[in-house]
Amino acid sequence: MRRYLLKRLLHVLPVLFGVSLLSFALVHLVPGDSVTTLLGTRYTEERAEALRSEYGLDQPLPVQYFRWLGKVLQGDLGSSITTGQPVREAMAERLPVTIQLVGWSLTLGLLIAIPLGTLAAVHRGKKEDHIASVTGLMGLSVPNFWLATLLILFFSLHLGWLPSGGYRPLKDGLGTHLRTLILPALALGGAVAAVILRMTRSAMLEVLDQDYMLMARAKGVPPFQRIVGHGLKNAFIPVLTVIGIQAGYLLGGSVVIEEVFSLPGLGRLTLQAIQNRDYALVQGCILFIATSFALITLAVDIAYALLNPKLRAGGDV
Amino acid sequence: MKTVLGRLWKTPAARVALIVLALYLLAAIAAPLLAPYDPFRMHDGEALQRPSLEFWMGTDRFGRDQFSRLLYGSRMSFKVGIIAVGVALTFGTTLGVVAGYFRGAADAVLSRLMDILFAFPELLLALAVMAVLGAGTGNLMLAIGIVYTPIFARIARGAVLEVNARDHVEAARSMGAGHLQILFRHLLPNIAPPLIVQTTLSFAFAVLAEAALSFLGLGVEPDAPSWGIMLKEGKDWMLQAWWVAVFPGLAITLAVLNFNLLGDALRDALDPRLHRENT
């Protein structure tokens, strides 16, 4: 077990190094020069040179990379070339919005998927199962930005119940906060719900066939306790890995959803940075999102190993 | 192959998916013949017209016929899908086969590289690549292709590792078969099933990604008839005209849904073990 954990931890290091290299390389391959964009009509050769030298853009790329990496490791991601604000500060301001959006999306996804997936497995081949599979397939197929558009059209413009955009923090009250995030979370969480639903169903189907489920039934354990206590508990391990994979979808999808709902989150910041060719900001955002995703995957793998009795007992994966 | 197709055709969902996708393909190929109007023609005084006999799906804010634009949009989606998935399939399979067959340093390097690409959420990676390459249809195909290359590589590598250890490959090797003969006669035909399933499912992603990136303004050219662009424009006018936001989304959803249905059915049809369990 300890060996597995160590192996997994060591595995993530080259990935993180690669992520940093790619994040750095990506923006340096961008055609067009942010200095030219920034100076606009005020462009003169001297001003451009001064700015390049100020941001270290006149150095060879490997030098720029290691200098950048050294600063990143100390928590310094540079400053936005368009606003002058430190990248770390800009990201820290936007991060809570994205965490809340992703958190609510996942919560909604789980609330929809786990009961529906369990119900589908218990009633295999019946009406409930068909409804769940259609819901699952639809959830996978409806583009989140279209779902977002439809939700705005219906709940905001037609019924006038919820705002079509904007964000209110949690400190303004849970109700006010949720009013601004419920539609975005639904739009983003729909596909997650679909994936988790399908996984819950298949994991539950496998568990329901196990001898211990038959045993529980023979011993007269009531159905609800049997399904939730014995079944769902054991089916949860594979479901957990899917949740980990979905973190990537949620982080990527937040770019689109934050843009549609004008939420001031990290996704929208990334998009704006790309549009403005703001080197440092793009680098910071992409590096942060990819690193978070790699670490979430690591955490899920470790949780999986800890929850899996075979591994806990000292076996190998 | 015949039995696989037979099994596929026996599944109602797969039958529906095949028919719907064939219709989409027909729309894409025959768009110039089927479209009632030029997709770029702005009809004077006909902006934001409701769906009617004259304009089946209404008009957009420039008075362009939505139905014609949707037909041409399917052309764009299929074009992007075929080329992007083709790029991913070709490069991914080649890399995966090389890594799985030759093992050693090539495998170690390629696997680490794929792990790094996997650390990026799909859409973010596509977005980042588009930021580097700049908006445009060709770049979009390449970006989606790059995003899906590691997925094909991983599947091909895994399948090669499994097939390579089988008795018939060992037998061929001991009888003096060369690398090429083993690769083309024994490995590629046997690793095809999971790749076929992934190709179908990747089409769904390609259609979605094309629409999402175009919707964000980082996809195809802004005046191109693409479902994502139509939705991007429609979003701002949906209060006055619901049809500009509803029909393009419906077109995307139906295409993606049917690619997913076909992918699921193909997986069942190509996996004899699962097939036996289901019957």
How is the secondary structure organized here?
The complex is a heterodimer of chains A (317) and B (279).
Chain A: H1 2-28, H2 34-39, H3 45-54, H4 61-73, H5 87-122, H6 127-141, H7 144-158, H8 174-208, H9 211-218, H10 223-260, H11 266-276, H12 279-307, H13 309-312
Helix pairs in contact in A: 1-4, 1-12, 5-6, 5-8, 5-10, 5-12, 6-8, 7-8, 7-10, 8-10, 9-10, 10-11, 10-12, 11-12
Chain B: H1 2-10, H2 12-29, H3 31-34, H4 66-102, H5 104-118, H6 122-133, H7 137-164, H8 167-174, H9 179-215, H10 227-235, H11 243-270, H12 272-278
Question: Could you explain how this protein is built, in words?
Answer:
The complex is a heterodimer of chains A (about 325) and B (about 280). By secondary structure, chain A is an all-alpha fold. Chain A has two domains: about 1-80 and about 275-315, no CATH class; about 90-265, MetI-like fold. Helix content of chain A is about 80%, strand content about 0%. Chain A has 13 helices and no strands. Chain A has helices at about 1-30, 35-40, 45-55, 60-75, 85-120, 125-140, 145-160, 175-210, 210-220, 225-260, 265-275, 280-305, 310. In chain A, helix 5 (about 85-120) packs across helix 8, helix 5 (about 85-120) runs parallel beside helix 12 (about 280-305) and helix 11 (about 265-275) runs antiparallel to helix 12 (about 280-305). The longest helix of chain A has about 40 residues, at about 225-260. Chain A is globular. The mean pLDDT of chain A is about 85. With about 280 residues, chain B is mostly helical. Helix content of chain B is about 75%, strand content about 0%. Chain B contains twelve helices and no strands. Chain B has helices at about 1-10, 10-30, 30-35, 65-100, 105-120, 120-135, 135-165, 165-175, 180-215, 225-235, 245-270, 270-279. In chain B, helix 6 (about 120-135) packs across helix 7. Chain B is elongated and about 75 Å long. The model of chain B is unreliable at about 275-279 (pLDDT under 50). The interface of A and B includes residues 141 and 248 of A.
